[in-house]
């Protein structure tokens, strides 16, 4: 039978007393966690983590009731966090399926196109790249010229050359564009 003496022994590092506490409480804790999560491995992991946390804080306890309350509060909090995580993942996956179709093809295609555009822009010559980046931020030719301290005509020339180079570098992605507009 466990009592406060066990807790005092555990506080002094007595592993036998800790093992007895573990054996006494494990079944009840497992029942509680498993009933909530229906997953044996997760239940075992949560309980193990609770006992590890207790062992690390064992010097702070002087009563069996306090230890039980501590262990069960850790377990309860971890179970609730796990349930929230699962619910959040399910909600996110449901939203993706609703918005993007069952496989998320639209999202993958968009990511592929965006990645290709970013890569192609990075490969442009530095001054041309800067003009394109500023254009993508909706800056006017005049504002770009002012920021870069070059003439507006130079901006127009670099912009035209940059977009032409991008069209050439990104022509392989054109086959994906129709998929973006499919519902």
UniProtKB/TrEMBL annotation:
Domain RNA polymerase sigma factor 70 region 4 type intervals: 117-164
Xref: PANTHER family: RNA POLYMERASE ECF-TYPE SIGMA FACTO, RNA POLYMERASE SIGMA-70 FACTOR ECF SUBFAMILY
Organism: Butyricimonas paravirosa
GO BP term, example: DNA-templated transcription initiation
Entry's family note: Belongs to the sigma-70 factor family. ECF subfamily.
Gene Ontology MF terms: DNA binding; sigma factor activity
SUPFAM superfamilies per record: Sigma2 domain of RNA polymerase sigma factors (SSF88946), Sigma3 and sigma4 domains of RNA polymerase sigma factors (SSF88659)
The keyword Transcription appears for this protein: yes
UniProt-recorded name of the protein: RNA polymerase sigma-70 factor (ECF subfamily)
Keyword Transcription regulation: yes
Native organism taxonomy: Bacteria, Pseudomonadati, Bacteroidota, Bacteroidia, Bacteroidales
Leader sequence residues: none
Record key words, sorted: Sigma factor, Transcription, Transcription regulation
Cited InterPro entries: RNA_pol_sigma-70-like, RNA_pol_sigma-70_dom, RNA_pol_sigma70_r2, RNA_pol_sigma70_r4_t2, RNA_pol_sigma_r2, RNA_pol_sigma_r3/r4-like, WH-like_DNA-bd_sf
Ranges where the RNA polymerase sigma-70 region domain occurs: 22-85
């Amino acid at each position: 039978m466990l009592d406060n003496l066990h807790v005092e022994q555990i506080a002094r590092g007595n592993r036998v007393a800790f093992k007895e506490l573990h054996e006494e409480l494990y079944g009840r804790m497992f029942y509680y966690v498993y009933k909530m999560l229906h997953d044996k491995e997760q239940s075992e992991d949560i309980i193990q983590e609770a006992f590890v946390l207790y062992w690390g804080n064992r010097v702070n306890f002087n009563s069996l009731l306090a230890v039980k309350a501590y262990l069960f509060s850790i377990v309860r909090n971890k179970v609730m966090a796990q349930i929230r995580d699962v619910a959040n993942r399910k909600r996110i996956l449901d939203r993706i399926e609703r918005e993007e179709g069952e496989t998320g093809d639209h999202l993958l295609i968009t990511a592929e196109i965006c990645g290709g555009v970013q890569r192609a822009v990075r490969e442009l010559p530095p001054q041309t790249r800067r003009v394109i980046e500023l254009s993508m931020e909706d800056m006017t030719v005049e504002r770009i010229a002012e920021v870069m301290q070059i003439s507006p005509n130079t901006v127009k020339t670099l912009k035209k050359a940059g977009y032409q180079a991008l069209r050439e570098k990104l022509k392989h992605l054109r086959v994906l564009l129709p998929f973006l507009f499919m519902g």
